[in-house]
UniProtKB/TrEMBL annotation:
SUPFAM superfamilies hit by this protein: PLP-dependent transferases
Organism of this sequence: Aliicoccus persicus
Family note: Belongs to the class-I pyridoxal-phosphate-dependent aminotransferase family.
Protein name stated in the entry: Aminotransferase
Record-level Gene Ontology MF annotations: pyridoxal phosphate binding; transaminase activity
GO BP: amino acid metabolic process
Keyword Transferase: yes
Cofactors, names only: pyridoxal 5'-phosphate
EC number: 2.6.1.-
Amino acid sequence: MSSHITFNKNLANIEGSLIRTLDAEMQKIPDMVRLTLGQPDFNTPRHIKNRAIEALEKNLTTYTPSQGTPDLLNASSHFMKEKYDVTYDPNTDILTTNGATEALTASLLAIINPGDKVLIPSPFFTLYESIVEMAGGVPVFIDTVKTEFMLKPESIHEAMTEHDNVVGIVLNFPNNPTGVTWMEDECKQIADALRKYPQLCVISDEIYSEFVYTGKHVSIGRFLKDQSVVINGLSKSHAMTGWRIGFTFAPAHITREIMKVHQNMVTNVNSIAQYAATFAMSDGIDDADPMREEYRTRRDIFCNALTELGFKIAEPNGAFYIFAKIPDGSNQDSMAFALDLAKQAQVAVVPGIAFGAAGEGYIRLSYAASIEMIEKAIERISGYMKGGVTHEQSSIQ
Ligand SMILES: Cc1ncc(COP(=O)(O)O)c(C=O)c1O
């Protein structure tokens, strides 16, 4: 007998992650060079792993305060001051979350009432759309393709003139999927534009802040602290995706509301991970430095090779992605191109359409992969683009 259970209507249009489905599909093809997932290929630094073992030995295995342990809150406050020159009070302005993902979900659930709109510059990290929908909100996309994936103040004003009931905007720099980021001037201009709309909650996903290659990351918190929730975490900077450590940094009255969602969803973040994270953000404050240098080398090799092959790339000065325009004359949409590349040349990339309609015509290549893998990918993509296949064809159709 079929069940009579009804579900939350907001979930009806939410699909599973296209990237993960595609990745699972592509994994079935043997000898694949996988450039699909946003997962650092480094191990978590040894000193952090040792602290997790120490936490177990010390029996730090009980609930912690919902907000996070005082030591971790102090360390993350210090980290934000040292790195990005923004002051957040560890007692009132910081919340420890299960990765940046929970930080995003809790923040958006805290601000959205049914039917409220949230601006999302597009292409965008896929979770933004589904979280807004889950919360009963309506995503409004701002196409950034024509401006080399840089959000412009004029586009914010246009969107605010065209739409009512806009309660928030999700920013993401350095950006996934484009790798584009803002320097101080650009960040300030965006902050100035947003300040005109004090009703907007600015949710700024800065999870890739430690991976900026020329210049330094500037947080929106520097210019627009009063209406912003800055989201960060250790998944990327410290190669700690599985540990699930993220944060929201926001004024006390906003943090208080996000905290209600967090408390009811998860109570607190894993106590062992929090203990180790405290040392990641203090002793390991510069752990990302050697990774950044390695990513930079890979990015340069990969960008040069792809450009020579006819791909156009907006300068990826951050994160670890290249968003490449499929050369003219390919006659395939991004999904067809990615599938064909996987089948014919055994290189797995993500079609741009996975990041919204504005991503059509592009593919995302992650360089969180070894130089050896990147060189293999270059050789295979080159063979594919020149019309031949460099090695045995896959049997997968
Ligand atoms: C832009 C962006 N935000 C958030 C996340 C999620 O981070 P976390 O693993 O800390 O939840 C990712 C992961 O790929 C991301 O690319």
